[in-house]
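does this look right to u?? zinc ion version
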Amino acid sequence: MALRKLGDSAYLYPGSPSTLIRVHEGRAVVVDPGLGKGRHKDLKRQIKKLNASLGFQLATHGHADHVAVSPKLGVPLFVHRHEFSIAESPLNRGILTFGSKAPKGFLAYSTGEVIVHAVFEWNDELFGMRAIRLNGHSPGMTGFVDEENGLVYSGDALFGKRLINSVGIPYFVDAELFKESLGKLRSLAEKGYTLIPSHGPVVSDKKAVDLIEFNLQRVEDVEKIALELLSKPMNCGELAFRLMKHYNVEITPRRLALNLVPVRAIVSELYNKKLIKGVVENDLKWVRS
Ligand SMILES: [Zn+2]
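got this back:
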């Protein structure tokens, strides 16, 4: 697949996730190498065409679709320290969705072990970019600000409309942090940075602000509807099912399992605000207090 030039030293390898290639001091830094058969070969081919040597890899977070081809690129991978064990261990990735080992083939994406060579902190300068905290989607979700090219690789802190409309509920493990990160992205968009979501279109100016608003609105809507639905006691599965029905998305066992994650995060939020309480009715259920 051909690269799209985003600036003097930044290129996008399109896909879902997309991969950012940043040339720094003659070396190519790959941000979110992604997944897919043959992708590593294609990435190497494209980097060669840039007359750069493959130097390092950065990942916004450790989800399998963002790091699957990393071992095949064979250069050191850097992740935020909160993502270290998620990127490295397939079992930990299963735990994120199921709380335990996941049923085989049930996760949307899976891959084997991934070796992480170094961890970074938020605000670290890495190969011409600055790591910024954009967590909520995952514990250590990181964006990369590239001043030279005026862009921010925003990973899964912001989703394209098509993706959100296909699943109904954006994926996050902490609703408040997810919203806070969207707020940070809005201020960067307002300063003129171009935003690059991993799953969605490259956006800037009004389009960037509109997309952020769309994401924010969906989270707030889901929270509001969840609270309304909990006028009757409901377990998390039923709540996720009802929300998906509301957004008219196709409900498959896998999608329902995935959406249980943000639904549980919302339940925790509502509980912490003392808006709901837990009851035992053949299951752990939640109801408005
Ligand atoms: Zn992700």
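The longest strand covers residues 19-24. idk if thats expected tbh
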